[in-house]
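Most newcomers find our protein records easier to grasp once they have seen one. Nothing more is needed to start thinking about how sequence determines fold. Here is such a record, shown just as it appears in the course material:
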Amino acid sequence: MAGPVMNADPCGCPEPQAIYNEHAARVRDVIFRAHSEWFERWVSQEREKLDEAVVAAGLREKLPHFRSGGSFAIGASHKPFEVFVLGSVKFGKSTLINALLGIDVAPTDMMPKTWCFNRYVATESPVDHVRVFVDDRHVTTDKDLRDLLGAPTGQADGLRTHQLTQRQAASLMAMEERKTEESLNTANPYVSPVLEMEWQVPTTNAVLKGIRLVDTMGINGIREKKGHLHRLSWEFARADAVIWVISALNLNDASMRSEMNNFRRFAKRSVLVVNRWDEVSDTVKLANRARELYGSIVNDIVFLSALAASVGITRRAIGDVEHSQRIALTQFMERMKVRNHDELLVASGFPLLREILQQKLETNLAAIRNEAAYNRLRVQQAEFRKMARVALDDHSANLARYNKLTTMLEDARTETSTLVESRFGQLRKDMEKLLDDGIARLQYSDCEHPEKKVDLQEIENLCRAEQQRIAERIEHAFARLYATADGPNGDYRETEFAADGAVAELLQSSSLGAIKIEVARVKLDAILPRGKRGLGVRVLDVVARIPLFGEVIDVLFGGPMKRKLTENEMKSTIRACVKPKLSEVAKGVESALRNEALRLSETVSRDIEEHAARLGSVAEQQIRIVRLEQFLRAAPPAPVWADLTAAKLRLLKWTKA
């Protein structure tokens, strides 16, 4: 971006900011142009150091889409000039590409056809073949696509490559476009594994000989497709210049400004093309507004009618233009008093864009690439340190979380074991007391029906209710672990980084399971024995009911004493019969709950281990922490001007005075 004009204060001295800008420009010229060979060696060495440090710190596995080779186009002015064209859907990117290539190749009808990246290579002798770059992780599930692609021809940039004829490529486009359109409004829109197609076109009318242009889907669509987003960053890093296309009718696009700011980190020479300028009435007001919104973000702003430029370059007949576009184009030609294709091209604003590409960029290509490579290197050095800090926080938090869960599990085991032991000791006492209370109420008159006073069902209910309470407390003890593991901030953290170094996503939370105890069946299989009345007692019972003399005779023959003896024998028999059953039921329920608690403990333990297994073992986590700490303790690399100064000083021969 050009610096401010060097103004002078009243004393005639330049402003400090202007001096700084001029000095910075000269430093850049020395480093990136005058010492380009030294710089190329330096940046290659620094890149190797960075790659080695990234691998040693274990960061490579956290950024599978990072490809440093495509991020550094050092010097190499003989390599074709590559321009990346970005913008929202239907802002005229494809029409602009047609104008830049001087031939109608990019699809421009009303439905946005750019569902993948399309690279157009202008060459003297274009071939009929199209290179297709495919993310092969998703191709195996699609037989039609696999059959059409055929055998791969190799690997490039982390993708599998295929070679198709243009007819086959057209069939591929039609098939993938159909799948994309049919799934637009579904819950799972189709994302093609085809990430890029490379076409060769004649360079005869291209704005620059041998230029390469990359057309994209609307950037708002890319954001929804993870694989395409990674590819977007890679493509952006590779390009020599970026053309941002925005509609003059939607100038104040906050999302576009946000994206442009996001990608400033690549330090690319950028041009904003305000398209559809032919439809603007108050051009002065809108031009001032565009400079106000974007002047600090881009290097140049071009006001353009891509449609007029495309028609002017290709010399297409106005009648061949699509009807809705033809009306606006005709009105523009009348307003600008355009009579032929040459005048239409000039009126479109295209000559300024061509001048920027040819004079500002192509002639300084080696220095521009060197500076971009350096800026990219410095950004990545800083980004990887940021990533290392995030990864270190992740591993530390995950270890702390795992240790917390295992400690909670041991506490739950101890708690439930103590609970079962203490509560069932008390339960046996409560059941025996209930039995004793019922036996104490028994009288001789209850000999035939002792169940009236001794209710076994009540004892069963007591045991069942207490078992349920204990089961709920055991469930709660283990459920606390699940609440911790599945809480809003409870999941393990495993940050994945996008190709731009930003956080792409976190490890998704997944429930450990459900806690439920199956309570044991409680049944007191005991029959209450009746009181045993002998013949003598029965006779006395009858005699005792005779008026006047019956009670006397009953007393004389020991009736009350015999009845009391029968009552006591009944109580003793019931106690001897039922008490062992109570103990048996209590032990059975206690054993069942112990087994259930053990089963829950093992289940939770297994869930904890399986849930944490995605992150590696504790030992692996600890090793990663050590490696990341070493990476962060290392001193940051020196800037290029410091190394260049040191290199020059080492060449000087110092002599004693």
